[in-house]
Amino acid sequence: MTRPAVSFEFFPPKNIEGSFRLWDTVQALAPMGPEFVSVTYGAGGTTRKLTHEAVDAIHKKAGLRVAAHLTCVEATKAETLDIVQGYAKAGVEEIVALRGDPPKGSGGFRPHPEGFSGSVELIETLAAMDRFRIRVGAYPERHPDAAHELADVEHLKRKFDAGAHSAITQFFFEADTFFRFRDACEKAGITGPIIPGILPIENWKGARKFAAMCGTSIPQVVADGFDHAKDQAEADLLATALATELCDKLIAGGAEHLHFYTLNKPDLTRDVCHALGITPKATLSEVA
């Protein structure tokens, strides 16, 4: 089996305890030799400053290539571009450009009167700068805001046409979900790389809630397995087995890169990587 490229998503810490947890995760997964790591925003752009600080620290102290998340929700164009300039000064060369989730209770996304209209306009602006590799989000299953079944494919096509270099999908549980989406994208004329997003399930209740929010379907066999797990140890074994099997099928089907949503908990992701034959390349020497 060909060794796939890997990448990992982290979220910024909100307190000292969270900072230690993030660095423990970075230290555990950096030896896997990720092509890049990404750092998220909170809903409504609520963690912009924290995201910038985490991006700067991971890039400088851990020596990893960081793809910094950037959203345009609840922000003017000037505010968003100020973040971009901060990333550039920090040496960041990759951005994950997203519309962003609206704040809870806001009733849905509404562009800021002085902001970007959405992700496509944001991508166009970043592409015109010609200084970043631009990654974008993709939905292999129908997004709750999508008007029809092919709307997500059509929107992704607009993102690539605007200047995106690659896309990272939302998580899913069946390889065929990704393959159908990939085929639909190829039929629509999308030629850029589409990287499957993998969520090793650390917390079944949380994963089920998140899946409902973003339109991810859960196979009955997966739900039954976690519902009947006797304890966390059994649930972890199941999660590792399911994620490894999914990755095996994706690799066999031609996927050359896997992106893991770590939730700042490295153990399951590391176990899956090991099961796939992805072993440490080096030791992270400076984490503080």
From TrEMBL:
- Quote the catalytic activity from the record: (6S)-5-methyl-5,6,7,8-tetrahydrofolate + NAD(+) = (6R)-5,10-methylene-5,6,7,8-tetrahydrofolate + NADH + H(+)
What Pfam families does the database record attribute to this sequence?
A: MTHFR (PF02219)
Q: Which InterPro entries match?
A: FAD-linked_oxidoreductase-like, Mehydrof_redctse-like, MTHF_reductase_bac
EC numbers listed for it are 1.5.1.54
Report the pathway entry.
Amino-acid biosynthesis; L-methionine biosynthesis via de novo pathway; One-carbon metabolism; tetrahydrofolate interconversion
Q: Which organism is it from?
A: Limimaricola variabilis
Organismal lineage? Bacteria, Pseudomonadati, Pseudomonadota, Alphaproteobacteria, Rhodobacterales
User: Record's family?
Assistant: Belongs to the methylenetetrahydrofolate reductase family.
> What is the protein's given name?
Methylenetetrahydrofolate reductase
Per its UniProt record, what Gene3D superfamilies does this chain match? 3.20.20.220
Names of required cofactors: FAD
A single MF term (Gene Ontology): methylenetetrahydrofolate reductase [NAD(P)H] activity
Alphabetized, the UniProt keywords read: Amino-acid biosynthesis, FAD, Flavoprotein, Methionine biosynthesis, NAD, Oxidoreductase
CDD domains named in the record? MTHFR
- SUPFAM superfamilies, per this entry? FAD-linked oxidoreductase (SSF51730)
